Amino acid sequence: MDSDKHPLRIGLIGFGCVGQGFYDILQQQPHLGLVTARIAVKNPVKPRSLPAEHFTYHADELLADPGLDVLVEVIDDAAEAFRLVSTALRQGRRVVTANKAMLARHLPELVQLEQQHGGTLLYEAAVCGSIPVIRTLDAYFSHEPLRAVRGIFNGSSNYVLTRMSEEGSDYGPALAEAQARGFAETDPSLDMGAFDPRSKAVILAAHAYGIFLNPNEVLNLGIEAVSAADMAYAAARGQKIKVVASLQRLADGHVTALVTPQLLGPESPLFTVEHEFNGVLIEGEYAGPQFLRGRGAGGHPTGSAVLADVLALRRGLRYGYAKRATAPAVPPTAELTLDVYLRHADAGTLREVLAWLELPTEAQDSDDAGSYATGTVPLPRLLQWRDELRANNVFVARRGEVRAGEVAGATDYHHYPVAEVVNM
Amino acid sequence: MDSDKHPLRIGLIGFGCVGQGFYDILQQQPHLGLVTARIAVKNPVKPRSLPAEHFTYHADELLADPGLDVLVEVIDDAAEAFRLVSTALRQGRRVVTANKAMLARHLPELVQLEQQHGGTLLYEAAVCGSIPVIRTLDAYFSHEPLRAVRGIFNGSSNYVLTRMSEEGSDYGPALAEAQARGFAETDPSLDMGAFDPRSKAVILAAHAYGIFLNPNEVLNLGIEAVSAADMAYAAARGQKIKVVASLQRLADGHVTALVTPQLLGPESPLFTVEHEFNGVLIEGEYAGPQFLRGRGAGGHPTGSAVLADVLALRRGLRYGYAKRATAPAVPPTAELTLDVYLRHADAGTLREVLAWLELPTEAQDSDDAGSYATGTVPLPRLLQWRDELRANNVFVARRGEVRAGEVAGATDYHHYPVAEVVNM
Fold first, then answer.
1. What pLDDT, on a 0 to 100 scale, did the predictor assign at position A164?
2. Does B287 contact A305 at a Cβ distance shorter than 8 Å?
3. What contacts A178, CB < 8 A, 6 or more positions away?
4. Could you tell me whether strands B94-97 and B70-73 are parallel, antiparallel, or unpaired per DSSP bridges?
5. Mean pLDDT by 10 residues, chain B (424 residues)
6. What pTM value is reported for the model?
7. Among A57, A117, B97, B373, which one has the highest count of C-beta atoms within 10 angstroms of its own C-beta?
């Protein structure tokens, strides 16, 4: 733990949305005793909000600088982020990162490096922006057996779905609006294909269940093929479509993870999570259900989470990963049956999809907008056909949660407060 | 920080709802390395779930036992709790308490004792049961300027209001049901008179704003005079009545605190907090709005929060009270004008109340259920007449938040997700 007397010198790697948000907050709070001593960026010609003399173009200079107390890594490139963060941890440094794709791929190795060399790695900003979900799972719930951790972890796709639902617009215009407002990347496939919330689910699994999942083995279905017809289907049933990441402990002790669009009614607290907001439901054995909601994107909200990590490093905080000691002896499983809804504009393609998934032809139905199908499919079969479903623009959503009997404990929603329907 | 190798020996003082819940969870989790070495209770003849040899009837024996690593104090009696906790802190001990009335009255002194003698005092379970709101405000938001912290902090009165709203029943039967279900004390005045949520607001003010408020100077209006007529008045406007505690930073830099019933529409996230659940809204300058919801009462949820504190003590956690360094130089204020709704079964009494509050006689109106009044009243005047309003069974509720212009920053609800009204 450092004295609060001398300012902590920060090396900032990356000056995009999050980096600038973090820098901005620090400038406005000089009393915190933190100084952004050096900033490294990649592109020397890109116009920036600060004069060029503030920047270096070689992040390795920051790694080589023993005068920096903390490194903050907030770049996009996952491979380069891993190189920088793992090198810093080998030096025993204290590091904050917000790179979820990098963490999801390399967490076991990074935790090992942290332990071997005595450094510290914190990454609250990597999951759910401003919501303190990692420290809540890691520390506050370190002792609490968890039935489930579920939520909306991607602000970009949630913004698109909210706008489609509000405006009745189609996917293309809603995505363009999200991009124009800075809520989606120019290449939106990580967000819209549910790769990004899958990375976040993998990170949370380490803290909630003490297990390191391989992201490639976790089912992710996105919203790239969602249409106004799907929104109308949901609305006709009083539901909304949300991309929900789910970690669950099953009755047989296995933990399962998946990220898919889901049809949700107002009885779910996630029903009220709109625009770029994120929401997390934690079902504790003793504590009961917890719900957290906050901004999941944006420079200031995410920058504020990065700053919370830097201050936590100064206080000596480390993640405990306490659940690793009680992690299920059985491997993660995909042995689950899901209730699904599928749609494709072309009835012939949809018939073909039913054959892939071994669904009967009677599963097919139609409404004003064309053909859709409903039925139950084993999760491994969806995993097997995931890439084909995506390549063929088939929209797939879950209907409801994993079936009763498969889930550990009885999920008691009886006293769970829901968004009530009020006639005004 | 202790080694996780040798078990931490806990002295438990109190074996009521929370004490038993805590003990129960520990028994089910032997791998945590915690042992309830001694239990002190007051009454030697009360029947208990454990054999008599588990108990001592002299809490002072635990204070005198150097073999105990942590003391957990979960008794009802605030004066005795203060005696025990302050004595333990003078010994430099590590203590967990859940006694909010005691904390609200003695926090400055306890924090001073902690610093003088090197002990530690944690009290997550004292506010909002299972919700980790104190550590979230104290650590995660230590750097974040907060516009407001608002919420439903009392599960008992919220349970009564929910049942009245669901059943159309009157206050008496709803309270009797809450008592029968163990959600309200036999003497319900602390909960129903809003003394309990006031204590919690005072505790949160220390972490959210770095200020120690005098509970007696904080306006608390309860629900002891609420009737089916009030519920009908709210329902006719698509609203609910909730007891809301509010801490707010005003535009002039002052912090204000009050706890009153409030008429809330579905645009408020607190609208969905029902039964014994609690909910907290935190408005951060950079992080934006955060919402936390979870069980606010019950042996297991509160026991789980106590256990989280014991494990935090083992990791070396202390509250930082960081906001004390940036606390407003101006004293807390009550200089606020509130929009209020008042009702009394007797029109004559209501007229008298209007005179007390210097409201014009035109403020009085009536509906099928009798006479009510609406108008704006300065907060100090409500504080001045608080006891008379209570003694005369006048129900008073706020309509809406503090007026725009008085509050620091523009509270931007534009992108705030709300419980939407859906026609199914």
1. 97
2. yes
3. A156, A159, A160, A163, A184, A188
4. parallel
5. 73 96 96 96 92 95 98 96 98 98 98 98 97 98 97 97 92 92 82 97 97 95 97 96 96 90 96 96 98 95 98 97 85 82 95 96 91 95 96 95 52 31 25
6. 0.94
7. B97
CB contact under 8 A, A25 and B272: no
At the topology level of CATH, where does B8-122 sit?
Rossmann fold (3.40.50)
Cβ atoms of A171 and B167 within 8 Å: the answer is no
Q: What is the pLDDT of residue A414?
A: 29
Burial class (CB in 10 A: 0-12, 13-18, 19+), B201: buried
Residues B275 and B235 sit within 8 Å (Cβ to Cβ): no
* Percent composition of chain B: helix, strand, coil (DSSP 3-state, to 5): 40, 25, 35
Q: Hey, of A5, A96, A137, A140, which one would you mutate to test binding to chain B, going by the most B CBs within 10 A of its CB?
A: A140
Is residue A238 within 8 angstroms of chain B, CB to CB?
Answer: yes
Alpha helices in A54-138 (DSSP H): 59-63, 78-90, 100-117, 133-135
**Chain A residues within an 8 Å CB radius of B144:** 304, 308
The counts of H helices and E strands in chain B are: 13, 16
Percent of chain A with pLDDT over 90: 83
Tell me the H-state helices in A155-227.
155-167, 171-180, 189-192, 195-208
- Which of A:150-179 have CB within 8 Å of B? none
Residues with Cβ within 8 Å of residue A348, at least 6 apart in sequence: none
User: So where are chain B's domains?
Assistant: 8-122, 134-300+328-399
CB within 8 Å: B266 and A422: yes
A100 catalytic? Reply is no
Is domain A134-292+329-399 in CATH 3.20.20.150, yes or no? no
Q: Do domains B8-122 and B134-300+328-399 have the same CATH topology?
A: no
Question: How are beta strands B255-264 and B240-249 bridged, if at all?
Answer: antiparallel
CA-atom Rg of chain A in angstroms: 22
CATH class of B134-300+328-399: alpha beta
Distance CA B61, CA A173 (A): 71
DSSP H stretches of helix in B139-256: 155-167, 171-180, 189-192, 195-208, 228-236
Helix or strand or coil: residue B74? coil
